[in-house]
Write a structure and sequence with these properties.
This protein is mostly helical. The chain is built from eight helices and no strands.
Length: about 220
């Protein structure tokens, strides 16, 4: 009897766990590095560079991470300071970095995010206050703000549900083909339908899920 770690299924599970752990470590490491860089630039009063690194820290963040909350709070503070100083362009950059960073890290079951909604509302407000564009001359500030907010509130692709279906379908498809290659043939290379039937159907289901996810994500 083979040891557990020499079985294909167990070996594949261990490989997936190791890969997931490596990815999580990389994400946490990059987020910490970006957050440290952002703090350093903020202390040096280089706010433009600080904003960029805070945005990156948010994009690298993990769910419920304290680093995310720290970066969000810092961006809100910087945006408010720049707006008070009359630097509308800088404030817009900070608010957009906050809104975009949070939009890029949404998850399947994440509901509304108050920080992102506040950032989007601030972006819409600042954009509406700029009356330099001729196309906006016949619209009130409230109308402009509502239009900008509507655009900022639109869902961002890819759709999380279809994207998840795509990833699960691809994993099922590839995994089923690997099982088919190891169990669907006898030592002489002959095809064994009894052993191959399950992996073939699993590969088909996985391929269909992958294709649907690819089309609609």
């Amino acid at each position: 009897m083979k040891p557990a770690w020499e079985r294909p299924g167990v070996a594949a599970a261990l490989a997936i766990i190791a890969l997931a752990a490596l990815v999580l470590w990389r994400v946490a490491s990059e987020s910490s590095t970006e957050l440290a860089a952002a703090h350093a630039y903020r202390d040096e009063d280089q706010l433009s560079l600080a904003v960029e690194h805070y945005r990156r820290a948010i994009r690298w963040s993990l769910p419920l991470s304290t680093q995310t909350a720290e970066a969000v709070s810092a961006l809100e503070s910087i945006a408010g300071r720049l707006e008070d100083e009359g630097d509308v362009a800088g404030a817009l950059r900070a608010w957009r970095s906050l809104s975009g960073g949070l939009a890029a890290t949404r998850f399947l079951y994440s509901g509304s995010n108050p920080a992102r909604e506040n950032a989007s509302d601030s972006v819409a407000r600042l954009l509406a206050s700029d009356r330099s564009a001729a196309i906006d001359t016949n619209l009130s500030e409230e109308q402009l703000r509502a239009d900008h907010l509507r655009l900022l509130s639109k869902d961002v692709s890819p759709d999380p549900w279809w994207g998840t279906l795509l990833l699960l379908g691809m994993a099922t498809w590839v995994g089923a083909l690997a099982v088919l290659a190891s169990r669907g043939f006898d030592p002489a290379g002959g095809f064994r339908w009894a052993s191959a039937r399950g992996p073939i159907w699993s590969a088909f289901v996985g391929f269909v899920s992958f294709t649907l996810g690819l089309l609609f994500a």
